[in-house]
Please model this.
Amino acid sequence: MSEFHLYMAQRLSALVMAPFVLVHIGVMIYAIQGGLTAAEILGRTQGSVFWFLFYGMFVVAVSIHAAIGLRTILSEWAGLRGAVLNLTALAIGAILFAMGAQAVYAVTATGAA
Amino acid sequence: MSRAMVAASTSQRREKRGPKVGTTGPQITVTVQRGGPEGPGRKQQFQVPAYDNQTVLDVVSWIQQNADPTLTYRFACRVGMCGSCAMMVNGVPRWTCRTHVSKVLQDGAMEVAPLRNLPVIKDLAADMDTFFDKWVSAEAVHHPTASRDDPIAPIDPEAPERVTASAGIECINCAVCYAACDTVANNPDYLGPAALQRAWTLYNDAKDGAQDTILDAVSGKGGCHSCHSMGSCTAYCPNELDPLSAIAGLKRATTRRFFGKGRA
Model:
């Protein structure tokens, strides 16, 4: 993958993330207005295809976006180059995706209503 | 270094140049970085007579001609056209021939060092090789569309692409933007603002026939996409050019090509 393709991937993932961030924060503020327990939240999200897709795509976009950004920082600040740099960035992306996917699975997929 | 000259002692003019070392009267304290490519050089202080009208280059020349003839620096035109005399003045890259001392003096003192982000040859003379090599790497070279036997194609100076190109062609290759750029400092592969700006002017030049070649060259490792848009290039350019916008233009052009669109 060339630097240009990484650049495009980071910009496009940002494009995906922007509305997700707004909806995520907006719904959060709206939903807790009347007070909301964890059980009530899970009751609405678990088994929901919408929230699975919403947060699933969010996690994919974050993993791509953050891994590429941190790759640049590791290169310029820590001086990492070549395979070490690429493998480190790949590992960061994989860890972010694994953690996010686990959360999405727990919140939307388990205990389906 | 062919177009520039390293200053040599001009003893004939010395007598007319004003006071010798130790002359009473207002003086400025000048700290000069000395040494070669082996690393950060030692710093040496000089007392230089202060005049009403005096550029930083005048001060450096005074030191070389009156205090220490071994001081190495580079200049040619002395009028802001050749781009040879750029140095770090109080940590800021400047064209020294057009920088008035009164503008940079801090408590009657100033510090002069070779340009940042480039190897040092000796004292204040930076090695410009990597800077110019990167112009070639960025395909910032003319790709002809016609030969000398063809008629000269008319160019409309008001055409939008020509206006865009014209905005960047007054670059004097002084490397002030290159020295100011933090991305260059942290990413040795980065082509730098000057090379990318020239690539952008050629991309918009109706007489350049290799738009795709240029976009390929600036899309690689250390290309325009490495720029973080911090804007030091535009902030410090002595000719008030705007490499930041030129690089943004290259980013736009490569993105348009990615989505299968032609020139804007």
Q: What stands out?
A: Residues 5-126 of chain B form a domain with the Ubiquitin-like (UB roll) fold (CATH 3.10.20.30). Chain B touches chain A at residues 183, 186-187, 219-223, 225-226, 251, 254-255, 258 (CB under 8 Å). Residues 54 and 178 of chain B are 26 Å apart (CA to CA).
